[in-house]
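Here is an idea for our session: we take a single protein and study its fold together. Once you have written the record down, we can walk along the chain together.
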Amino acid sequence: MPYLHYLHLHVLSYYKIRRRQANMQGKYVIAYDLGTGGLKASLHDASGTTLVFLVCEYPTLYYKEVFHEQRPEDWWQAICRSTRLLLDKVKEQNICKEQICALAISGHSLVGIPMDREGRPLVGQVPIWSDGRAKEQARRFFETHDYNAWYETTGNGDPPACYTLFKIMWMRENQPEIYEKTAYILGSKDYINFRLTGAAGTDYSYASGTGAFDLRRMCYVDAYIRDAGLRRELFLEPGQSHELLGRVTVQAATEIGLCPGTLVARGGVDNACMALGSCGLGDDRVYMSLGSCAWISATTRQPVLDSALHPFVFAHVEKGWYCSAVSILSACTSLSWAKEMLCRDFSAQTDAYQRLDALAAEAPIGANGVLFNPSLAGGGTHRGSPELRGAFLGIRLGSRREDLLRAVLEGIALDLSEIWESFSSHIHMPDALLITGGGGKSALWREIFAGIFGIKIKKGSIGQNAASFGAAAIALRCAGLWEDYTPINRQCSGGALTEPAAEHETAYRLLRQRYRAARRALESFTQENQNIPSM
């Protein structure tokens, strides 16, 4: 009898698996990564395999140095354009819109779009994550609230002015007519979800970047909202990222080219989606993202908090997990600046970064004495002052372009290595550090990272597609094609491995010492000159 019972269960399990496999056939999902520089869109089959990937750019508008804005309508038009392009590209594979069962969005963080009671945005341009206009509002808030207690509660480790709570305070004080008409606030991906479904909602990961969310209790801190002088109803109650928010409406379907009724998940914040897409979900999942800005991120069961290092922490897309990270604000943007300033003879060519690498490779370790501090967008939370700026040091009459370019690559790696050293005291670090993002494509840069960090560097297998790949996993769960995120772990094993060269160990150790001394001098210089007006 026990054997027959076992056989019965085995047969039932077999047919259950076969039914699930049959249900997965011919079903696809679309994922969007709403980023700072543009939208990445991709189409995936039921296994998660990326079939098509493309990018649609949109502008960021800069005012008064600290005002960084984008137009939500640009995001929507990018969604419409990219969706139609995706569907056109897969026609030859006999994939049609009727087979798209779900979609999900990864959205850049710390955005608050004021919406009226009729569901209309009240402004045409909104501050994005890097906007720092709310410094005065944050300063006043912390006159009556202990900063460390707020940080320990929220995990919001970036400069406070960047967080949504203080941006809404700024709006209330500087745009009172807009604030009075505001019924609720939507994040970046939440706005697109609203355009798609007519449903206003958010998820835990995005809510955790508002400056008013308790990471451990997974709810808003009403006292923070009240003491900021804001209305509680502005903040939407979150749910899990893979939960169904709504379905594509007839009007939205007409605009973007999908079928009405397509499932739309709540989605997640870009940091969490990128963590999921880069290295999966589980203990000891650590990676370094090397994009416009750069960060080292760890997936943990508890938030990693440090009052000196100030990691910024988001709730993960899976409840009960956290993404803790420390960043530098200008990584590949520093490299892009160097390309435009130092390589104007080929900066517009498609192979510009490969040619830059070739030039930098001609300089020795240490760039013939030239050092570069990459704080072109200011010092991160791990630095003594957010006012810290970039610098070349050690330039001589004999310094060449090759030296300056290698110094830029080394300077970014050196700054991140200090984060690595500090972060490693809080979590178990892997033997090899996974590197993702556009910068990870450079073999020279991976060699520099391996030498400076003194560990193996593993090239990510997902690359620039990590955040949209994470969003695809969310969509697959929303559609019921995946039961959990286990399948993504098998696809995040990483690619080429770069080991530190033993013969270069001394040279890189001396380089790290020189960089620390130079960085301390720059921080001291910044602090001493903060009150001197610029000319």
User: Anything to note?
Assistant: Residues 1-23 have pLDDT under 50 and may be disordered.
